[in-house]
Amino acid sequence: MRKDNWTSQEDKILADTILAHIASGSTQLQAFEEVSAKVDRSSAACGFRWNSELRKIYTEEIKKAKTARAESKMKRSNNDYSEQVEQDYEDTFGGLLEKLKSKISLLEKELDRVKNENTRLKITLQDSRPDVVLSEDFKNMIKIIERARSLGVLEKTS
Q1: Fewer CB atoms inside 10 A, N or C side of the chain?
Q2: Where do the structural domains in the chain lie, given as residue ranges?
Q3: Which ranges constitute the DSSP H helices of the chain?
């Protein structure tokens, strides 16, 4: 470990590291440990240098770092809230959506069954009442004859 005077470069490393730790929400003690490895001094020496000399010089930067930390914390809190809202939405409406899809599937099957039954009944009705079919054919033939008369192709016989 070194025992000589601090250089301006070492002071800058110490200040930048501590300000970064403040902004990120980490502790100054962790910053002292990190700086001690970079400048080959003890973490106690780094703490002493920061508290006795540099803290007074960097008061504005400390305020900015604390503000950045608070904003970051607020963003995380807002993100947590947003994630919770999304989860609540999924829990509430996701299950409802699945229930609706299931109900739609059942209704589609029921619709198919009813259509098939309707077709079957129409065929049964036609097979059991041929006079109804003939009656429709007879009506259509009369319409054709009336149209031919109106065009002058046929004359009325009375």
Answers
A1: C
A2: 8-57, 82-150
A3: 8-24, 28-39, 43-49, 55-57, 59-89, 95-128, 130-150
61 CB-near residues (< 8 Å, 6+ apart):
15, 19
28-37 burial by CB neighbour count: b if 16+ within 10 A, else e? beebbbbbbe
Q: Which residues contact 149 (CB under 8 A, 6 or more apart)?
A: 155, 156
Instruction: Note the pLDDT of residue 131.
Output: 59
CA distance 3 to 102: 76
Cα(64)–Cα(73) distance, rounded to whole angstroms? 14
Burial of 58 (0-12, 13-18, 19+ CB in 10 A): buried
Q: What is the pTM of this model?
A: 0.47
- 39: Cβ contacts below 8 Å, ≥ 6 apart: 2, 10, 13, 14, 46
Q: Contact, 22 vs 8, CB < 8 A?
A: no
Provide the token pair at 158.
Answer: 């009375």
> What's the CA gap between 145 and 95, in Å, rounded?
64
- In this predicted model, what pLDDT tens digit does every residue of 21-51 receive, in sequence order? 988 888 889 999 999 999 999 999 999 999 9
